[in-house]
Write a structure and sequence with these properties.
The complex is a heterodimer of chains A (466) and B (219). Chain A has 466 residues and is α+β, with helices and mostly antiparallel strands. Chain A is 59% helix and 17% strand. Chain A has 3 domains: 1-162, 2-Layer Sandwich (Beta-Lactamase); 200-302, Signal transduction histidine kinase, dimerisation/phosphotransfer (DHp) domain (Helix Hairpins, Orthogonal Bundle); 306-455, 2-Layer Sandwich (Heat Shock Protein 90), CATH 3.30.565.10. In chain A, the strands form 3 sheets. Chain A has a 5-stranded antiparallel sheet with strand order 2-1-5-4-3. In chain A, strands 7-9-10-12-11 form a 5-stranded mixed sheet. In chain A, strand 4 and strand 5 form a beta hairpin. Chain B is α/β, with parallel strands linked by helices and 219 residues long. The chains are: A alpha+beta (466), B alpha/beta (219). Chain A: Residues 217-251 form a coiled coil. Chain A: Residues 180-232 form the HAMP domain.
Chain lengths: 466, 219
């Protein structure tokens, strides 16, 4: 059952029950008050009539007449006639003999002073009191018709039922409108949640109430925003993963295609020495390319996994090793390497840091023109140790920088492939930086050069800076 | 035979394709990026374009818009194997879609299919004293017609279209007799012997050890 319907029914039932109980109680009270009043009145009237009869009898006695049944009957009759209009009947009993009214033999002498009687559907109250002495052998029975009281009560009951039947539907309609209005924010929230559940994460609740609903919708919106953000990140990650897989497939397929093709060519084609040479050359270079790709991928997966033991590394030794590795490449491109060393030691893994620098240096060599200059630097900045490789080559655009660390991404695919690169160098650098808990930053401007900074934490080397 | 433009940024694969095209007698031009293609199209007339999709400069899908104006059949040659890419390729009007890594024989076969569909040419193949009219299915030796059975001619055509490339007996069975042929590879030997005898090509159709047969012709 819906909340609004539940509320409506509960409120309606409670209201009607409360109303009815109070009305019934009020009616009961008023009924008892009315009957009491009627009884009071009847009682005093009876007393008054009895007294009047007594006085009449006394005055008759004082005139010397005797009081016989005839006189008693007449006196009572005169009163009875008077009161008849008010629904009052009188009886006068002498001992067991009924004096007034005559010829009513079915009447029975009442034996209790007060009673309520119902006769042929009409209600009476009856008082029976003896006259004061010396006429205390006479019993005056006073009967009053109180049917009007009952009629009123019945009328009230009917009215009560009518009211119940008219008020309840009216109340229901009013409650319906009121509760629907109150639960409107709930429906709005529910609608929005449904949309979000269906995948429209940009949906928000437009509710500016200052009550609990407003608060709820604010919190809800905050949640929706967090979800949208998260979903966005997830889909971006999935896209990147897909790109990596696509790229890996491409990187594997290309050398495989040419190796397979040239091997087939060598085996089955009718060719001369020159073609044979070309084919074997390609098989050789493509094999080398696959080998380098395989090792780079291996490096990538290993760097992230094994825990790193940070060691104190002399920067001079590190730089020497890197220079030695890249000496031939630099000589071939007639690159001038400028080494600048402000700090003597850094903390890290020697092999990984060397790999990092070699990768950066190779990128720089490929980006530089012949005879260009590359700087290899180690210094302290803002209480942190920085390793920097800077070149003054072709640089990259902002978009290229944004994707530079993505596996297999190559800023210039043709050039990079000529050098045998698979586009994994900077990905590996990023992994190495992460393994060192170090920050990595890359700044590049087209046609003016690129610089890569590896910012190592200070507490590793604070005691060793000169 | 046909003039083919090969658009492929990987130098090794570009060379692999063109070296094989040269073997079977096609002319070719090499393009290593998308932008050069437009220049080539303006300068020369091509019968077919082999087009990579991931290219520096302008990708293969974009290039299709330019190529369409020249009404040249295109075969995509790519590592992108997703269904959506293939559909895009065909929707753009490609004749075929070949996924790397591919076999050279398959590539050549598909090239032949596309060429034949696009332009049924009166292919004439001359080798020594023999002259083969591929379209009319006629063979002349010393200007005298040579009687060949239908199978023998089919085998001859496969050898000519893949000349200078060795074909295994299994491959020949598949290409000449069809996939569902249940015969033995000896059938191939018998037909080859017939061809050699009828055309006097004992020296031209050579047996390659552990492989099969190859029709040697001038490259």
């Amino acid at each position: 059952m819906k909340f609004w319907l539940k509320t409506l029914l509960v409120v309606l039932v409670l209201f009607v029950v409360a109303l009815d109980i109070s009305v019934v109680m009020i009616m009961n009270k008023s009924w008892s008050l009315n009957t009491e009043r009627e009884i009071q009145r009847a009682s005093s009237e009876q007393a008054l009539i009895a007294n009047n009869i007594y006085e009449n009898l006394t005055s008759i006695m004082s005139r010397g007449s005797s009081v016989d049944d005839e006189i008693l009957h007449n006196v009572t009759y005169s009163y009875a006639k008077n009161y008849l209009q008010q629904g009052v009947t009188l009886q006068l009993w002498n001992q067991e003999q009924l004096l007034y009214p005559k010829d009513m033999n079915h009447l029975i002498k009442p034996d209790i002073p007060f009673e309520q009687i119902e006769e042929q559907g009409i209600h009476y109250i009856q008082f029976s009191h003896k006259l004061p002495p010396p006429y205390d052998h006479l019993l005056l029975v006073y009967t009053r018709d109180i049917e009007e009281l009952y009629d009123n009560q019945r009328e009230l009951n009917r009215f009560f039922v009518t009211i119940n039947f008219t008020i309840s539907p009216a109340l229901m309609i009013l409650l319906f409108l009121f509760i629907r209005q109150l639960t409107k924010p709930l429906r709005l929230l529910s609608k929005t949640t449904k949309h979000i559940a269906e995948g429209d994460y940009s949906e928000r609740v437009l509710l500016y109430n200052k009550d609990e609903f407003g608060e709820l919708s604010q919190n809800f919106n905050r949640m929706a925003e967090a979800i949208e953000q998260r979903m966005h990140e997830l889909s971006e990650m999935a896209e990147e993963k897909q790109r990596i897989v696509d790229n890996l497939a491409h990187e594997l397929r290309t050398p495989l295609t040419s190796m397979q093709g040239f091997a087939e060519y060598l085996r089955s084609a009718n060719i001369g020495e020159e073609e044979r040479g070309t084919a074997t050359h390609y098989i050789w270079t493509e094999t080398m390319r696959l080998k380098s790709l395989a090792f780079k991928l291996l490096d990538l997966s290993v760097v992230g996994r094994k825990p790193l033991e940070l060691q104190r590394i002399p920067v001079e030794e590190l730089f020497n090793s890197v220079q030695q590795t890249e000496m031939k490449n630099m000589r071939d491109s007639r690159i001038k390497l400028i080494v600048h060393r402000d700090i003597d030691y850094v903390y890290g893994d020697f092999d990984l840091l060397a790999t990092f620098l070699v990768n950066c240096l190779e990128n720089s060599i490929h980006a530089s023109v012949e005879g260009g200059e590359i700087r290899l630097m180690a210094y302290e900045l803002d209480e942190e140790a920085v390793l920097e490789v800077r070149d003054f080559g072709i640089g990259m655009t902002a978009q290229q920088v944004a994707r530079a660390f993505e596996p297999f991404y190559r800023a210039d695919s043709a050039r990079s492939r000529e050098h045998g690169g698979a586009g994994l160098g900077l990905s590996l650098c990023r992994q190495i930086a992460e393994a060192h808990d170090a920050r990595l930053s890359l700044q590049s401007k087209q046609h003016s050069g690129t610089s890569v900074h590896l910012i190592l934490q200070l507490h590793n080397n604070s005691s060793t800076t000169p | 035979m046909a003039n083919i433009l090969v658009v492929e940024d990987e130098k090794s694969i570009n060379d692999l394709i063109t070296m094989n095209l040269k073997l079977v007698g096609h002319h070719f031009c090499k393009s290593y990026n998308g932008t050069d293609v437009i220049q080539f199209l303006k300068q020369e007339k091509f019968d077919l374009i082999l087009l990579d999709i991931m290219l520096p400069g302008m990708d293969g899908f974009e290039l299709m818009q330019h190529i369409r104006a020249y009404n040249i059949p295109v075969i995509f040659l790519t590592a992108k194997e997703s269904l959506s890419d293939r559909i895009t390729g065909f929707e753009l009007g490609a004749e075929d879609y070949i996924i790397k890594p591919f076999e050279i024989l398959e590539l050549l076969a598909r090239i032949n299919v596309v060429l034949r569909r696009a332009k049924p040419s009166d292919d004439l193949f001359v080798l020594g004293e023999a002259e083969v009219k591929l379209l009319e299915r006629q063979v002349l030796k010393d200007d005298q017609p040579v009687e060949l059975t239908a199978r023998e001619f089919d085998l001859l055509e496969v050898l000519i279209r893949n000349r200078n490339i060795a074909l295994s007996r299994e491959k020949l069975l598949e290409l000449v007799w069809g996939y569902d042929f249940l015969g033995e590879t000896r059938t191939v030997d018998v037909h080859i012997r017939q061809l050699r005898k009828k055309l006097g090509w004992e020296e031209r159709i050579v047996t390659i050890f552990k492989l099969g047969y190859r029709l040697n012709a001038e490259v």
